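[Automated response] Your request has been received and processed.

Submitted sequence:
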Amino acid sequence: MNLIQADASVGSQKGQELVYSLLGSRVLENIAEVTEERVFRGEPRLDRASPRQVFPHVRFYESEPPHGRFPGHHHSWPELATVIEGKLDVAIGQYMYRVQRGDWLVANSEVPHGECYASRNTSYRLIWFELERPYPNLHLTEYRSGSGYESFGVFGLPQLPAFLRRSAAQLLGPGWPVEAQARMHLLRLVNWIMELLDQSLHQKPSRASEQILAVKELVARSTETRPTVKELANQVGLSQNYLSSLFHRETGMTIRQYSVNHRIELAKSLLADPRSTIKDVAFRLGFQNPYHFSNAFHRATGTRPSAYQTFATAHPAK
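Generated structure:
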């Protein structure tokens, strides 16, 4: 089972090599040095409180603009992150912290959170793990003086095996595990991801992978009408049941989930145009009605299309 890159903003080979390198170096170092004092979970920490009073506009928070002092970015799944380079300010809930390389961050579901530079002439890099989504993933974010904020794509993971679901529950639960247990859970997670990356980087694509890629390309070409599993199966010469099983095994998600996610990414581009209406976007992308589109968009991004469009048109990508 290969690691699947769901966002092509970074080339597959280059992006996977970068993640593999960081997991095998900086992230393993952070795991070895983890202590409870280096974990930030939205609780008061006077020793590491940020002097910042206002959360700035951050371009890759397209889902919602910041609200007052703290960001409004939130979603229905928890996130785990670690600082692999530099120093930055992080808001979790009602608290803002000054964090640095080696620190770990936990933002529980529906808790507003966000990251921003400590000062304009600094830089940082974070790796994020989203483990309890229907389709787990990890991604990189960074800030560089002179070039600003960037997100280095989203790398989709297969469904977590049972032993890793238990580890994720411990790391994202109400209390952080003791140091030895935290290291064990984190090492299990990182080793599993590195094995997937190693397989993806060094094995030739299988026939099954080629068939899944063909299905993805068919979905990408069908924006206004969503092809049925039967139609896709006929195109690649497989039975419906086998294609459904194969697609889920290879990607960790159903064909329907993949199709919706693909259309949501297209919707983001369309909503960035102030001339687009939510109704037009919904029907252009083959949703039954604007209400169905709005709910699907909210489930995928954590915000409504109207809020996304307001922010995206006010802060166009450079």
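Summary generated for your ticket: Confidence is low (pLDDT under 50) at residues 1-11. Residues 4-202 form one domain.
If you did not submit this request, please reply to this message.
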